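Just wondering, can you check both lines?
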Amino acid sequence: MNNGFTATDVPDQTGRTILVTGANTGLGFETSKVLAERGARVLLACRSEEKARNAIAKIRVAAPDADLDFVPLDQADLASVRAASEQVRGEDRLDVLVNNAGIMMPPRELTVDGFESQFGVNHLGTFALTSLLLPKLAERSASRAVVTSSIAHRGAKIYFDDIDAEQSYKTQDRYGQSKLANLMFMYELDRRLRAAGSSTIAVGCHPGIADTELARHLPAVVRFAVPLFRPLFNSAAEGAWPTLMAATAPTVEGGAYLGPTKRNETAGPAGEARATATAKDDALAAGLWELSIEMTGIDPGI
């Protein structure tokens, strides 16, 4: 595997269709831009049509012939997830699903369906959308489902006995839980796809520490310090490199987990990343899988 992947390594994507969630800003926008520049048809799945249209206009400045479309998607609402999957199933093809959308450390809130918002949006929304689009991905050989985790999965746990944070809510712990869930889901999905003999693969990635809007809910003292440390961060464009590698690198195999390769996976070109033993725990992942089916009412069927 090429340990040192950047945007310049993304191969020609002509003829492929790629769905990117949370595509109007940050990592999702940068990922969409590069994919469009390489010739892919990119579906930008976003909550705000206005922000999505602005993103499409900005990408067209760099790539005037870009093939782009908007898919309304709010991962805090399973009805919206179902509607988005219906729209995408109407496409001629779907080669890659890039699960990028997420929220980070908001005050305790509930999704439309009553889930704690970070677990609901980051994991259950991703689980539901991926599950609903697996049949569409299966129509293309060598298709991919990409799931974005975070170095915040390190030291995290799944609160199986208080999944909706009714007993206690610490923003950082619940963010870590959601990102651990993303990685556990990726591994379990890949195991099941392999067992089913599918040519679709699941791939995980994380951006390291990237300079994006996700940080808006961080404590004021941390936000104040951000400009001081900004030179050490990945830019949003650099933070997108592991996502681009996961989505496009020919050498990537199912179950790979990719991230930045410098400064303890916080910055630099993309390559292999380290996952914790908890993230790779088959029994925990199977329990999370069953819980996710129970909570969403959506069964991937594999």
